[in-house]
Design goal:
The protein is an alpha+beta fold and 154 residues long. The protein contains two helices and eleven strands. The chain has two domains: 73 residues, Sandwich (HSP40/DNAj peptide-binding domain); 59 residues, Alpha-Beta Plaits (2-Layer Sandwich). Strands 2-6-7-3 form a four-stranded mixed sheet, with no helix packed on it. β4 and β5 form a beta hairpin. It is elongated and about 55 Å long. The relative contact order is 0.19.
Length: 154
């Protein structure tokens, strides 16, 4: 089955008693333009988002018919959970994350980053308030963007 666009989100969508099936994605797969996955129910799906980056999120619906709705479910992963105590600490944490080129996520007053041993040791050494937990990384701090370069030839 070929998917080329998002239809809506399960949180704001009336399923009308249709069966809801899920495609399980890891956090880093949510911005992929081309994916081939199998739903939990066993349906083979090929996603090709031609026009733009999909930025798929938890609960996004990618298919519906009279009997079924297929939505996205993001898999939990090992996550560094940081709780900055001040704006200065927030700035220092963000600089370290930026220098490591890792995607940061937010939830309430927490900063979430997929586990990275080097960054974890660095945060531990700095004494930041943090824990290691299994979490769903669904709210990126900044949208990933593609760099578009234009060349002009003389």
């Amino acid at each position: 089955m070929l998917i080329s666009e998002k239809i809506g989100n399960i949180n704001f969508f009336n399923t009308n008693n249709r069966k809801v099936d899920y495609i399980l994605l890891e956090w880093h797969e949510t911005n992929k333009r081309n994916l081939q996955k199998r739903t939990v129910g066993g349906i083979e799906m090929k996603m090709e988002f031609i026009i733009e980056n999909p930025l798929l999120s938890e609960g996004d619906i990618v298919y519906e018919d009279d009997f079924n709705v297929i939505a996205i479910d993001v898999i939990e992963c090992d996550t560094i959970v940081l709780r900055p105590k001040s704006m200065i600490e927030m700035g220092r944490i963000c600089i370290q994350i930026g220098e490591s080129h890792l995607q940061a996520f937010y939830q309430s007053d927490e900063i979430l980053i997929a586990f990275d041993p080097t960054l974890f040791r660095s945060f531990s050494a700095a004494g930041y308030d943090m824990i290691l937990e299994k979490r769903k990384l669904v709210s990126p701090l900044l949208k990933p963007q593609r760099c578009l370069m234009r060349h002009s030839f003389f």
